[in-house]
Amino acid sequence: MPVIEATLPRRLLSTPIVGPLAALLAACVFFSLNTEQFLSGGNFSLIIQQVMVVGTLAIGQTLIILTAGIDLSNGAIMAFGGIVMTKLAVDGVLPPLLAIAAGLAACAVFGLANGLLVTRISLPPFIVTLGMLNVVFALTHIYSQDQTVTELPAALTYLGETFRLGGTNVTYGSLVAILLFLLFAYLLGQTAWGRHVYALGNSPDVARLSGIRTQRLTISVYTIAGLVYGIAALLLVSRTGVGDPQAGQTDNLDSITAVVLGGTSLFGGRGLVIGTLVGALIVGVFRNGLQLMGVPSIYQTLITGILVILAVTVDQLSRRRTR
Amino acid sequence: MTTTPVLRARGLVKRYGHVTALDGADFDLMPGEVLAVIGDNGAGKTSLIKALTGAVQPDEGEILLDGRPVRFRNPLDARKHGIETVYQDLAVAASLDIATNMFLGRELRKPGPLGTIFRLLDKKRMREESARHMADLKIGLRSLTQAVETLSGGQRQGVAVARAVAFASHVIVMDEPTAALGVKESGQVLDMIKRVRDRGLPVVLISHNMPHVFELADRIHVQRLGRRVAQLNPADHDMAEVVAIMTGALQVKQDESVPAAKDAGLS
C-alpha cells in the first residue's frame, strides 16, 4: 500500500471551513468597497449583536445536525425560556438569578424530552421537534397569557450592557456567545464526547459496535442543545429588555441556515461549530451590508435563500467526489 | 493432550418469533488457529457470531471463554473480555481520521488534570500507537490524520483489522472481511490475517469464499440449519466435498476429525 501524505492544499480543500470563510471575507471586501459605513468597529459590534441570538441557537442546532438530526423547536424553546425567566423574576416568584436558572432548566428539560422521544421511541427528529415546536409555542402563550413581560430587573439585562474594546462598545452578550462557540469547538474537537458525536452522525451502527452508548449520547446532545437554547433566551432577553412570547418564530430555520452556510453537512458527521459562527456572520454581514447599500429587505431574504441552496449544493457535490 | 478451547459454546438457541436461527449450535475455537465458519444463507452463521460477540443474547445454551462460563450483554462486554470483531462494511466512521477510528470508544486522555477535568484527548499518543499497530501488520504507514473515507476499501479494512489486533487479547472475529473488496485488496487482507495468526491470536473467519477459506483455515466449522454439522480439516477434503456438506448433499458424522475437541470433553 503506497504512502499517501495529504498535501497542504489538499488538506485545506477538504477542511469544510475554508469555503464559508472565503465567502465571508469576499462579502466583507465587497461591502467595504460599496459602502462607507461598513468597515468600522461599531458596525461589526452591531453585526455580532444582531447574530448572537441566532448564532447561539445554531450551536445547539449544529450538535443535533452532526448526529444527522434536525431541531425545528429551538426558537420556540428559547421563547419559552425567555418568558419563564422574565415572568418568574418580574412576578417576584424567584429572585432574578434563580429565575434565570429556572429558565435555563426549562429549556434543558424540553431538549431532554426531544432526546428521549428520538431515542426511546425511535421517532424521526424532524417529527419530534415539529411536534415540540407547537407544544412549546402553545405553552409559551398560555403561560404568558400573550402578554409581553416588561420592567425587568437589572440581572436579566446585564448581558446587554457594553464594555469598551479598542474604542468600540461590545456587549457582554456578544462575548458570552463567542465563548460558547469556543467551548463547543473544544468539546467537539478535543474530547471523546465530541468524537463520538461525529461517529454517531457518520453511522449509528459503527458507533454502537465501537462500544459507544448511542442512546445516552443522543439524549446528552439534545439536552445540552436545550441548555444552549436557554442561554440564547437570556441573550435575547438582555438584548431586547423584555420577555416576548412572539420571539424566535423564524429562528429555527435561521439557525439551520447558519449551520448549513458554515459547511456542516445535513447528512451528519461532518462539520465544525466554528463554521456555524462563520455561517451566522455571513447572514449578518449580508443583511447589514445590503441594508447599508439601501437594498430592500426582501432582497436580503432572497440572497440568503440562494446562499443556502449554494452551500447545500457544494456539500452534496463534495460528498459525491469522496465517495 | 488436553487443550481447553479459547472460546466454546454449547447448545446455543436463538429464536426470532417463529424463526429458529440457532437450534442447539456448538462451537469450539482452539488456541492459535484460524477457524473458518461456513454455511449457506440462513444457516445461522451470523446469529452464531453475533451471540459469540455479544451483539445478540442467545435464548438458551452457554458460552465459555478459557473454560469459564461468560455472558455478554452487548458488544462492549465481549470487547472487555478481549474479543474483537471486524465487520465487513460497518468497520469505520468515514469522516474521522485513522487514529480516531483506531481508538473510537476507548480514547486516551492526557495525563493529569488536563485529562481528568478538561477531558482533553491525547491525540499525539493515539497517533503514535496507531502508527505502531499499523506498522506491526505491515499496513503501509500513511498520514494518520487523513479521514478514512479518502482510503481505498482494502486500506479501510486494514484500519479495522489493526484496531481489532491492537485491542484483542483473546479472539478476533472477522465477518466476511473481504466480501466488499477487489482481488488485490482481498489479498492484502488475507496477508494481514496470516500475520495475526503468526502472533498467536486465534481468528474466527466467516467467509463465503472457498479459496480464501482453504488458503487460511486450520479447521472449518460447517453451519447448517442452525447447528454445527461438521468440523473439517481442509487437508482431508476438497472444496466440492465441503460445499456438498454445507448444502446438505453429503452427510458426515458430526465432529469428525477433531481430536483436540474430543479431548476437551465433546460427546
Automatic annotation (TrEMBL), chain A:
Query: Keywords on this record?
Result: Cell inner membrane, Cell membrane, Membrane, Transmembrane, Transmembrane helix, Transport
Gene Ontology molecular function terms on file: transmembrane transporter activity
Domain of life, per the record? Bacteria
- Subcellular location, principal: membrane
What topology in the membrane does the UniProt record assign? Multi-pass membrane protein
Q: Which GO terms describe its cellular component?
A: plasma membrane
Q: Where are the transmembrane segments?
A: 12-34, 46-66, 97-117, 123-144, 165-188, 219-237, 258-286, 298-317
Q: Would the keyword Cell membrane be found if you checked this record's keyword annotation?
A: yes
Q: Where in the cell is it found?
A: Cell membrane
Q: What is this protein called?
A: ABC transporter permease
Q: Which organism is it from?
A: Nonomuraea glycinis
UniProtKB/TrEMBL annotation, chain B:
- Whether Kinase counts among this entry's keywords is no
Coiled coil regions, renumbered to chain? none
Task: Give one Pfam hit by family name.
Answer: ABC_tran
Q: Which domain of life is it from?
A: Bacteria
Fetch the InterPro entries from UniProt.
Answer: AAA+_ATPase, ABC_carbohydrate_import_ATPase, ABC_transporter-like_ATP-bd, P-loop_NTPase
GO molecular function (one): ATP binding
Indicate the segments forming the ABC transporter domain, all copies: 7-250
Q: Keywords in UniProt for this one? A: ATP-binding, Nucleotide-binding
CDD domains in the record, alphabetically?
ABC_Carb_Monos_I
Annotated protein name in UniProt: Sugar ABC transporter ATP-binding protein
Organism of this sequence: Nonomuraea glycinis
At the highest ranks, the source species' classification is: Bacteria, Bacillati, Actinomycetota, Actinomycetes, Streptosporangiales
